[in-house]
């Protein structure tokens, strides 16, 4: 039996700055995970991934990351790696946490 | 120090110009990421977790004050005001923007520095004993040889697409501070029975997924044979190396699969072919390089000021006892500056701190600095009479931590705070261990102890050769830390033994504390180091302390 599909976001690093970015519903990119498109359908995930891969001038290393809907339905990381990616390093107040 | 020739400067300028054009073409969309990635890696540019990272080589760990100042300028202008010194004598900038990197490389070139071959499947930055040219126990300064290897390996046409990366380390001292037994090739400068200089050549060492202690492939290699022999080793591996499987591609696996005798025979055959092609130009170059590394004019002066401070100032004395090493010149000392202040990130220095160290090098240290694989900075030549002033300046900059070789002098890779390959964080674990033992005021009582932490099996944090090694893994979506005991990075190199099940991020610091309690109870006296105790009694007595609940359950 194939494994059940779990919710995803499309994520990558921005070409120019290297920052972590997420695909939005409108097909552009945000640095804020809570504004990312939460994808619950596997076919849509594959299509959105293809769309994102067609933007090599913006996004590098595109992939689907596991998320879970938070209380308000916005995506929340399920793995600590994605938690660090949306936050920044733990030894300095640098990265995303500093720009919020 | 080595000064670039016109050829070096022109080569680097051209290379930087090429990379600038490659970046422009990538941004303009004329290069895909697939095409661009190998180009950026050849120039030390990684894409990490939160940003790009630029890895700059500090060949054999040697820097001038001017170069250190420039690293500070780069950190301030294009990064976030600090740099991270690594276990391979590199510095990493964690936040550069792609458009700025060509300017950063030009700024480096102005002070004769580069990021070439700090990544990719090439011969990487050549590392050496960080006490080179200064240590009392040294046979010969390894840096002229290391510079010769750097020049030979840089842009070597045969070795730009190797099966995998290739790392060479050189030591000129019998006390190995360059971890030569954990490199693809380790070179130990030795003399034969007649006193002629040469090398013991060690091959196939390495840490990572499959850790191996290197094996001696040639017990004595005459000095003049070095480059053809190195070329023979690398070319034998270049053909045999497992390009089909990334995890089996390093020379340590080739040596393991074929056996050292087979590799030796192949290398000797290849060496016999290559040797005649080396007409002696390399030896002329080596002789020229030696002049670049001539020792500074050491002065003869009384050490009264040192003696007085040592007697009268307990803080100074504590620092001197811990952070100084024996120098070959009378009246001199080697100063290790700890980048391991308890609670700070191991190996990080702010731009201000870099400038302080550069200024101290200029004023008191014959304008020389070194970076150690232990992620500290060294002033190799300081007259003892200047040490009180050096210590006072270090104190003002927060660089006076007296912990060299102690439990808080931890090697830690960037881990999952920065690295895209990491499976867990390293830095917070190092910070917590150092802070905890500082609170306990046990550090000096524990004595010489090396903790080395890696955030994944690639082992940049050298955990296999730590007296206590910590490996961070991802166990079912949770950070988990495995402990190894009894590793050794020196001439008596050994791989640590896995102690048992791993610990969570919350459990690891208490586990280390229990382990140290165990050591203090088990040692024969304060003179017996952790490693000596471990070698005397083995792993199992320590397990009782690490896993007390297992003992309770068994009872």
UniProtKB/TrEMBL annotation, chain A:
User: InterPro entries of this UniProt entry?
Assistant: DUF2849
- Chain intervals with Basic and acidic residues compositional bias: 71-86
What domain of life does the native source organism fall in? Bacteria
Q: Where is this region: Disordered?
A: 71-100
- Protein name, please? Sulfite reductase (NADPH) hemoprotein beta-component
UniProtKB/TrEMBL annotation, chain B:
Which parts of the sequence belong to the Nitrite/sulphite reductase 4Fe-4S domain? Answer: 119-272, 409-544
Q: Recite the UniProt keywords alphabetically.
A: 4Fe-4S, Iron, Iron-sulfur, Metal-binding, Oxidoreductase
One GO term of the biological process aspect: sulfate assimilation
The name under which this protein is listed is Sulfite reductase (NADPH) hemoprotein beta-component
Cofactor(s) essential for the protein: siroheme; [4Fe-4S] cluster
Give one GO molecular function term.
metal ion binding
A Pfam family it matches: NIR_SIR_ferr
Organism, as annotated: Salinihabitans flavidus
User: Residue ranges of the Nitrite/Sulfite reductase ferredoxin-like domain?
Assistant: 52-111, 346-397
Note whether RNA-binding occurs among the keywords.
no
């Amino acid at each position: 039996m194939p494994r059940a599909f779990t919710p995803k976001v499309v994520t990558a690093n921005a070409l120019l700055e290297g920052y972590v970015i997420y695909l939005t519903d409108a097909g552009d990119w945000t640095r804020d995970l809570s504004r990312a498109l939460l994808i619950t359908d596997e076919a849509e995930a594959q299509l959105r991934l293809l769309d994102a891969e067609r933007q090599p001038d913006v996004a590098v290393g595109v992939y689907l990351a596991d998320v879970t809907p938070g209380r308000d339905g916005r995506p929340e990381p399920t793995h600590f790696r994605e938690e660090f990616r949306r936050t920044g390093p733990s030894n300095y107040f640098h990265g995303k946490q500093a720009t919020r | 120090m080595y000064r670039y020739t016109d050829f070096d400067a022109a080569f680097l300028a051209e290379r930087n110009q090429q990379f600038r054009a490659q970046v422009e073409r990538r941004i303009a969309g004329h290069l895909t990421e697939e095409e661009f990635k190998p180009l950026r890696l050849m120039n030390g540019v990684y894409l990490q977790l939160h940003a790009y990272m630029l890895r700059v080589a500090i060949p054999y760990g040697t820097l001038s004050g001017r170069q250190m100042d420039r690293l500070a300028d780069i950190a301030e202008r294009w990064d976030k005001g600090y740099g991270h010194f690594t276990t391979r004598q590199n510095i990493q900038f964690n936040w550069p923007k792609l458009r700025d990197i060509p300017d950063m490389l030009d700024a480096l070139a102005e002070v004769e520095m580069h990021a070439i071959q700090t990544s990719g499947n090439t011969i990487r930055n050549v590392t050496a004993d960080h006490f080179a040219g200064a240590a009392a126990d040294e046979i010969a300064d390894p840096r002229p040889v290391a510079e010769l290897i750097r020049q030979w390996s840089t842009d070597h046409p045969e070795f730009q697409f190797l099966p995998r990366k290739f790392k060479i380390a050189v030591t000129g001292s019998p006390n190995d501070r360059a971890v030569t037994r954990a490199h693809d090739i380790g070179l130990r400068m030795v003399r034969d029975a007649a006193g002629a200089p040469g090398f013991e050549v060690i091959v196939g060492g390495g840490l990572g997924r499959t850790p191996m202690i290197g094996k001696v492939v040639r017990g004595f290699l005459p000095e003049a044979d070095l480059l053809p022999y190195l070329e023979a080793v690398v070319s034998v591996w270049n053909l045999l190396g497992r390009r089909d499987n990334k995890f089996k591609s390093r020379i340590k696996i080739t040596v393991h699969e074929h056996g050292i005798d087979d590799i030796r025979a192949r290398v000797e055959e290849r060496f016999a072919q290559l040797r005649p092609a080396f007409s002696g130009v390399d030896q002329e170059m080596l002789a020229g390089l030696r002049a670049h590394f001539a020792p500074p004019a050491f002065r003869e002066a009384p050490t009264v000021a040192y003696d007085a401070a040592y007697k009268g100032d307990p803080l100074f004395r504590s620092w001197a006892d811990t952070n100084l090493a024996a120098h070959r010149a009378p009246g001199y000392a080697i100063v290790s500056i700890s980048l391991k202040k308890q609670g700070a990130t191991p190996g990080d220095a702010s731009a201000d701190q870099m400038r302080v160290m550069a200024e101290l090098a200029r004023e008191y240290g014959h304008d020389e600095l070194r970076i150690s694989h232990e992620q500290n900075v060294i002033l190799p030549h300081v007259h003892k009479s200047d040490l009180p002033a050096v210590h006072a300046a270090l104190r003002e900059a927060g660089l006076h931590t007296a912990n060299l070789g102690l439990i808080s002098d931890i090697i830690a890779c960037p881990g999952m705070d920065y690295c895209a390959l990491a499976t867990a964080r390293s830095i917070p674990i190092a910070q917590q261990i150092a802070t905890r033992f500082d609170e306990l005021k046990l550090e000096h009582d524990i004595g010489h102890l090396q903790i080395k932490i890696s955030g994944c099996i690639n082992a940049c944090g050298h955990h296999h050769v730590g007296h206590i090694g910590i490996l961070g893994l991802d166990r079912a979506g949770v950070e988990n830390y495995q402990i190894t005991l009894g590793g050794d990075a020196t001439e008596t190199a050994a791989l640590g033994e896995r102690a048992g099940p791993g610990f969570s991020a919350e459990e690891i610091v208490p586990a280390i504390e229990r382990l140290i309690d165990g050591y203090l109870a088990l040692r024969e006296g304060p003179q017996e180091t952790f490693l000596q105790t471990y070698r005397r009694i083995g792993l199992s007595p320590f397990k009782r302390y690490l896993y007390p609940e297992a003992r309770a359950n068994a009872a």
